[in-house]
Amino acid sequence: MTEHSSLLSRTLGITFPFIILFSIYMILNGHITPGGGFQGGAVMASIFIAKYLIVPVKDIRLVGVQFVEKIALLLILLFATAFVISGLNIIFPSFSQVYMVVMNVLIGLKVACGMTIIFYRFVYYESR
Amino acid sequence: MLELTLILLIILAIAAMQTRSMRNAVIYLGVFSLAISFVYLALNAPDVAIAEAVIGSTIATILYLVALQKYKIFTIYYRLQDAEIKDEHFYASYKMQLVKSLEKFCTKQELEAQIIYTHEQLADILIKHQYALIVEEHDDFFSIYAHHENYMLDKLEVFLEHEPPFKLPFRIIKLEEMESEVIE
Amino acid sequence: MRRKLIAILLVGIGLFTLVQSQNMPAIDALPLSAYYAENAYPVTGSVNVVTSIYLFFRVYDTLFEALMLLFSIIGVIYMSIHEGETHDD
């Protein structure tokens, strides 16, 4: 996609902050309203995809994104297993809400990074 | 309202299968995802509806479109005038200049040129095969046949005019749907 | 040696999971969906039942789902390095 339309870039430029706000809202309120980590992360990944439609320039470092993704997976594994095994939810029932918010944030981060990696890999590294 | 959307889903699915152009099929699938996310919402499953709307309607559609942009085969049938293909000297002759510049055009448009040399009659090619361009050589000129909805045709015309001139002139003939019988 | 260590680690994880599954409270209510719909808020404190299921009742499922995403990304990276021209920066 060498030629890009000014109509598309103007429209996406206006809706850009709303998409970001919507995704953050969806992740943080996953335990109260519909939505959650996976959906919010996918919305957040669609920001980068929209950015590709506006300016098709690769200016994010994929290695950094991969690092963030791996760290997020490690934290998810550690946090979830620690929470379930230690039985904190029985001792402090109010703690489980905090657990859900943290897990939603981690899952959202991981899904956003993963989808961004898949899309950018596909777009910029796949020759032909 | 729910029943109407379900009927719309069936119509969209059939349309996505029956359409001729890949691009239209991708757009139909995007609309299908949007409609089915509405159905999920009507059935009290907002989580699934959000996931379907984001993944199916946005990300998958854009991925399909980029894939179509990246991988397109531009099929060119080159109809030889003589009854048999000559030796490799033939490929070096000046008539190949047109084929070379067509390949150059395809590379510039990020298409993959697939050139098929054939002796079949023009009407047979039109009926039997999927083609993007048909090049027919004559003694003193080339004729390039293409479907009139081929959106690459204007770019091709401009490109061929700006190329170094050929020894033989060429003309571009746009085919209507019905004209395949007329040529016979 | 490294393979044996990995095998020992995997067997350890399996045994640990078995032991843990013995300690889990059994749910006797037969329609499981009704149990989740009733007990989602009192047990986990989350209004959204879907979130309470995938983050609490079925948390191991979520963990391995996250692992699946990582595997698919590994596959994409592996394929595109071999297709593309050079290694990434």
From TrEMBL, chain A:
Chief location: membrane
One matching Pfam family: MnhB
Record's keyword terms, sorted: Cell membrane, Membrane, Transmembrane, Transmembrane helix
Superkingdom, taxonomy of origin: Bacteria
Location in the cell: Cell membrane
Membrane topology of this protein: Multi-pass membrane protein
Sequence intervals crossing the membrane: 12-32, 38-55, 67-92, 98-123
Protein name: Multicomponent Na+:H+ antiporter subunit B
Organism (species): Fusibacter tunisiensis
TrEMBL record, chain B:
Coiled-coil positions: none
Family matches, as InterPro entries: MrpA_C/MbhD (IPR025383)
Membrane-spanning segments: 25-43, 50-68
Keyword Ion transport included in the entry's annotation: no
Keywords: Cell membrane, Membrane, Transmembrane, Transmembrane helix
Subcellular location: Cell membrane
Domain of life: Bacteria
Domain MrpA C-terminal/MbhD: 7-71
Membrane topology per record: Multi-pass membrane protein
Name of this protein: MnhB-related membrane protein
Organism placement in taxonomy: Bacteria, Bacillati, Bacillota, Clostridia, Eubacteriales
UniProtKB/TrEMBL annotation, chain C:
Keywords from the UniProt entry: Membrane, Transmembrane, Transmembrane helix
Membrane-crossing residue ranges in chain numbering: 40-57, 64-81
Name of the molecule in the record: Multicomponent Na+:H+ antiporter subunit B
Species of the source: Fusibacter tunisiensis
